[in-house]
Amino acid sequence: MNGTLQEIVSLAEQCRCGNNHHNIPIEQMVISHDAWELLVAYLQNKQYKTVAIIADDNTFAAAGRQLCDMLEKASVRYTVCLVQPDENGDVIADERSIVQVLLETSNDVDAMIAVGAGTIHDITRFSSYKMNIPFISVPTAPSVDGFTSMGAPLIIRGVKKTIQAQAPIALFAHMDVLCKAPKSMIATGFGDMAAKYTSLVDWQFAHFMADEPYCPFVHQLTEQSLKACVDHIEEISAREEKGIHVLMNAVLQSGIAMLIMGQSYPASGAEHHLSHYWEMEFLRQKKRQVLHGMKVGVSTPIIIERYQRVFLPMLNHLQERSLATNEAKWERLRATATHFQEQLQSLPSPAQFRAMIEKVGGAVAPEQLGIDQELVDRSLREAHRLRSNRFTILYFLNELVL
Ligand SMILES: NC(=O)C1=CN([C@@H]2O[C@H](COP(=O)(O)OP(=O)(O)OC[C@H]3O[C@@H](n4cnc5c(N)ncnc54)[C@H](OP(=O)(O)O)[C@@H]3O)[C@@H](O)[C@H]2O)C=CC1
Ligand SMILES: O=C(CO)COP(=O)(O)O
C-alpha cells in the first residue's frame, strides 16, 4: 500500500467528509515470503481450535496444500472444502457454491480461510458472514481488488448482485504463490486497477448529479493505487517481484477504499456494469467465463471513448441546449461542466489505455474475449440498469439524453 494499514486506519478516522465510514476490521496484512509462518502464529494467537479452508482444485494446488502442511506441523485442526466447478468448468460465486460451503463447514469452526482469487473470496466472505464467523484472506493471485472489501458480488438466479457482507480480519499473501500465478492473472489485476480511470469519474459525477455519498480521502486512496500500477507498469508486465508487490498493494488499498465506503462506489462505474452484463450473458449462453479484470480492461476504453466522443462535446455546448424535461439535473450539470470537461480531457485516450493493457498481456478488443459487437452495443444501452443506485455518466446519457 502507499500508506500502511495503520496509517490508512488513522487517516480514515480523521476524515471529516461527513459519511459514516465503515470500520476496517483487518488486524494484520502481510505480503511476504514468510506469510505461512505468520498466518500460523496469528491463528495460534487467536487460540482458534478449528479453521475451515475454502479453496478449489486450482487454488488448493497453488497454495492450499502448503498451508495445510504448515497447519499440521503446528497442530492446528482444519477442514477443507473444495468448491466444485459448474457444468462449464468454472467455479462461480453463486447459490450452489455457497450451499456447498455451508453444508461442508461444521458449525463449530472458529474461522474460514479463503485460499484463492476473487471468486473463492466472495463465496467465503458471504458464507462466513452468514455463519457469523470471521474469515481470513489468503490471495493466490493479485487479480482483483476484492480481497479486502466487504461486498460479495454474487450470481443469484443468473443476476450479478453485490451483497455487503464482511471484510477479512487478516490477510496473508505469500510472495512465492503470487509470483507463480498465471500471467493472465497479473494482467487482470492491472485491468481491474486501470478501470479506476473511469470509475472515479463516474463516482464524482454520481455525487454531483445525484448526491451519492463521496469522500475525497477514499478517492485519493483509489487514485494512488491506480497511479502506483501505472508508474510501475514495466515491473508489473515483466512480472518482477517488485511489480507483483506493487500490484498486490494496489489491489488491497483499492479494496480498503471500498470497505471504508461500505460500497464499491470508487471502484466500479459504467465499465464494471458492462463487464457484469457480459458475464451474465455468458452464463445464459453456457459459455466459459472470462476473467473479470480482462473484461474491465476491454470495457474501460469503450467507456472512455463514449464519454469523450459523446459526453464531452455535449458539455462543451451546454449553453445552447433548450430547456429539457429534467431541468434540475441539467442545471446541476451546467454548474459542474468545467470540472467534468477537465476530468474527461485528462483521461488517457482509448488507444493509450489499450497500449497499457497490451503491455501487461491483457486483451484489448471484445472479440479477443468472445464478445461480439451486438453484445457490446446492447450492454452500452442496458448495462447501466444493473446498479440502480449508481448515477453514472452512461446512465445519464441513456436515461436523460438519448
Ligand atoms: N468483492 C469485491 O469487491 C470484488 C469481487 N470481484 C469478483 O471477483 C471475481 C473474479 O475473480 P478473479 O480473481 O478474477 O478470478 P477467479 O477467482 O474466478 O479465478 C480465476 C482463475 O484463476 C485460477 N487461479 C487463481 N489463483 C491461481 C494460482 N495461484 N495458480 C493457478 N491458478 C490460479 C482459478 O482457478 P479456479 O477457478 O479453479 O479457482 C481460476 O481459474 C468476479 O466474480 C468479480 O466480480 C472483483 C472485484 C472486486
Ligand atoms: O468489481 C468490483 C470492483 O473492482 C466491484 O463490483 P460491484 O460494483 O459489482 O460491487
Automatic annotation (TrEMBL):
<dbReference type="GO" id="GO:0050492">
    <property type="term" value="F:glycerol-1-phosphate dehydrogenase [NAD(P)+] activity"/>
</dbReference>
<keyword id="KW-0963">Cytoplasm</keyword>
<keyword id="KW-0521">NADP</keyword>
<dbReference type="InterPro" id="IPR016205">
    <property type="entry name" value="Glycerol_DH"/>
</dbReference>
<dbReference type="InterPro" id="IPR032837">
    <property type="entry name" value="G1PDH"/>
</dbReference>
<keyword id="KW-0444">Lipid biosynthesis</keyword>
<keyword id="KW-0479">Metal-binding</keyword>
<keyword id="KW-1208">Phospholipid metabolism</keyword>
<protein>
    <submittedName>
        <fullName>Glycerol-1-phosphate dehydrogenase [NAD(P)+]</fullName>
        <ecNumber>1.1.1.261</ecNumber>
    </submittedName>
</protein>
<keyword id="KW-0560">Oxidoreductase</keyword>
<dbReference type="Pfam" id="PF13685">
    <property type="entry name" value="Fe-ADH_2"/>
</dbReference>
<dbReference type="GO" id="GO:0046872">
    <property type="term" value="F:metal ion binding"/>
</dbReference>
<keyword id="KW-0594">Phospholipid biosynthesis</keyword>
<keyword id="KW-0520">NAD</keyword>
<dbReference type="GO" id="GO:0008654">
    <property type="term" value="P:phospholipid biosynthetic process"/>
</dbReference>
<keyword id="KW-0443">Lipid metabolism</keyword>
